[in-house]
Amino acid sequence: MALLTVEHLQVDFRLRQQTLTALYDISFTLSPGERLAIVGESGAGKSLLGYAIVNLLRQPGYISAGAIHFHEQNLTKLGSRQWQQIRGKKIAMIFQDPMVTLNPVLTVGEQMVEAIRAHQKISAQAAKQLAIHKLSQVKISAAEQRFEQYPHELSGGMRQRVVIAIAMLLNPEILIADEPTTALDVTIQAQILHLLKQLCEEQGVALILITHDFGVVSRIAERTLVMYAGRIVERGPTLEIINDPQHPYTQGLLNALPQMALAGQRLNQIPGHMPSLGEHPSGCAFHPRCPYATEKCRWQRPRPIYSGISTVACFAIEELLAETNLEEGDDNHD
What we know:
single chain, 334 residues, alpha/beta, four-stranded antiparallel beta sheet, ABC-type dipeptide transporter, Oligopep_ABC_C, ATP hydrolysis activity
């Protein structure tokens, strides 16, 4: 049974002159302990989806259609008091910049104890011991010393470990990590990713990893959703998508990885740019940047279809599959 089910979710922004849609018909499930990646360029809507799940959308943004079920509970129907029992306790979120999460005028320990005692009726001393234990779990050396320090006294990687420890304080069932390693160097990035994967495996926590980097995805996620202009354009097992990308946008993201270019060569890039919220083109939103776009792509929106064990929304793939099935039919007839 799914732990989280997102059904036909739509997020709009109500402006003075018009209402703009940012997320269109988003549906997916997350199983207990599963590690799911949501991939796309800036502006694809992936972070917005994370915020929608934990009810952190800011006005004028709002959920205009669809449902988000956690167990049997529809999160879109909850009030602020009910959300206090969900956010942080059942579903926790890690943000890209640790300093957004951490209060610069409080020590690490003060912030952790405050978070624990807001949800649990335990003494300050018991909360302190729990906090130090969680700091040790995220491989922070001299945890008792770090407990007494302020965020600015820690390195970027150490601050991100503290944020992960805070997210794991109340043993959530789902952890949403929004670009958790973007600001870190490659070595620290690898350590943080390994830590996240290890914690999820050991504690049975489901992970939603939001990122633009397929190199990150390959290390940690079992399943991947690829988003473009507010829609899911491809989904499937991570290894399947990396080894055999179907959608031209997914192919472009993978070709843009640094390791795909020879030494001394310019990095590959997808021509054009992600459309802004008020400029979503008709038909397939990717068609202005797609090397395979036809007239049909400009005016019709492709529906998701199965291609192998993945699903993809692309007319080129749809036509290729139709031709393959026709040829197989002819061979069988012969």
